[in-house]
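Researcher: Let's continue the batch. This sequence belongs to Porphobilinogen deaminase, and it's 333 residues. Same format as the previous ones, please.
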Amino acid sequence: MAAQTLRIGTRDSQLAVWQATLVQNLLKEAGIASELVYIKSEGDIDTITPLYDLGVTGVFTKTLDAALLNKRIDIAVHSMKDVPTKLAEGIQQAAVLKRASHKDILVYKNEQDLEAIGFVNGEWNEGEIVKRETSNVKGCDQHSPFTIGTSSVRRIAQWLHRYPTNKVENLRGNVNTRLRKLEESNWQGAIFAAAGLERINLRPEHSINLDWMLPAPSQGAIMVVCREGDHQAFDACQPFNDEATALCTKIEKDFLRVLMGGCTTPISGLAVKKGETIQFNGNICAPDGSDLVSIEIIKEVKDSANVGEEAGKTLLLDARTQHIIETVRNGKQ
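Model: Same format as before. Here are the structure tokens for Porphobilinogen deaminase:
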């Protein structure tokens, strides 16, 4: 009896379809037939409201989760940073693909504007940043205001922490829509995930890596999920599960979970495997950028399973962290 054709659930954006097609090709290499099933998420339908105002986690995943539980599809493919720290009941992780770039990038319009944010001769000039940010506000405001577009509270918070006099405008939609909105705006630039643009060959030449910005937990990784107990779907995905990426993203998600982070909390985390060690860097930032609490932990891989939880619990002991969490919880900016 021939094996059943696996139905792959995906959002219908260009990037989501690219990711689902990648999984389809990996299945094909293993001799497994599959088909794509397109499903529109709430996050795709409402592209106006800032993500932090939608007030829910899993805004891009819950429609696919429902289709999975209703057996309309057999597996779902997600950008892992969109996946809540706790999967819906009845759903399990089937695979995490090898991670692409974890970095955020700034797509800018004019190269001369970059000096205003300390990017000079192809490098981030930290000295200029320190000199500018420690000057008085009146002095800073004598420069032309730098305005960027993003709807990510994490990106907003880290940007304003570094550039407190800059302005941030809401930017929603798939990557194609956001690039178009940037082009039509009077902003100096907008922030994107490098992986999202690079995967579909849309990264503009006029873009730079934000090496100083810590990414969202599991940014750049793709997760495949299936129903609990569906051994056929789970086993089909195991050959392309990347253990190093799965470990690092688990650490990052644990950090996010312990800090009770969701769409409204500016939390960043990155775990990197270097030889036999894991280096983890994480932070939580005030929504307005006024404060940032960070942590770094380096451990041997064999002792690293609980690094994210340990880092989160350590930050929770800091009164500044508690103040940031209370600020978010009370809806203060």
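Researcher: Any comment?
Model: Confidence is low (pLDDT under 50) at residues 43-56, 128-143.
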